[in-house]
Write a structure and sequence with these properties.
Blueprint: E1 3-6, H1 13-19, E2 24-26, H2 42-57, E3 61-70, E4 77-78, H3 91-101, E5 111-121, E6 127-138, E7 154-156, H4 169-175, H5 177-190
Parallel strand pairs: 1-2, 1-3
Antiparallel strand pairs: 3-4, 3-5, 5-6, 6-7
Length: 191
Amino acid sequence: MLRVVLATANPAAEITVLLGGALDLVPRPLWLPDTPEDGSTVEENACAKAAAVVAATGLPAVADDTVLEVDALGGAPGLRSGRYAGERAGEAANTAKLLRELAGVAEQLRGARVRTVAVLGYPDGTRLVGTGVARGTVTREPRGTTGFGYDAVFVPDEGDGRTLAEMSTEEKAHYYCRGRAFRDLLARLND
């Protein structure tokens, strides 16, 4: 089984559910600093994260990057999803800013998509890339207590009306773009 370092600083439970049986997953080293997310695309950011961990550990690394794109905001927050309310702002501040900006927007215009790119980078510079997209809507207020990022305000179209933060890890992995991206990556790995 291929030994792979998890490059993500985000909660790894979803990745473990999806890849744990196929790869020997090793936690990200605590001493490793975060990789700047200054790429011009989601894929560039994910690739940079994987490459930094590969360079630091000498082992293959799996990384991902996810963005929320809200229709009524012209695709924002987009690449700034993790820093929407400012460079040092946390998830709560990012979500609060998003909800403020959507305060007067009608329900039928609160559509959004979440995109994830997952990358498995190797020490020789090769990489595999998986992608996933989930359409949904942004709620008027946070609901649920699990997950991270915008999970408490995103309801996937294919779900049953609950936000991602109201779902179990397994359910979220099924409906959310991150799960889809890692399943796509795993399919490419198995090819």
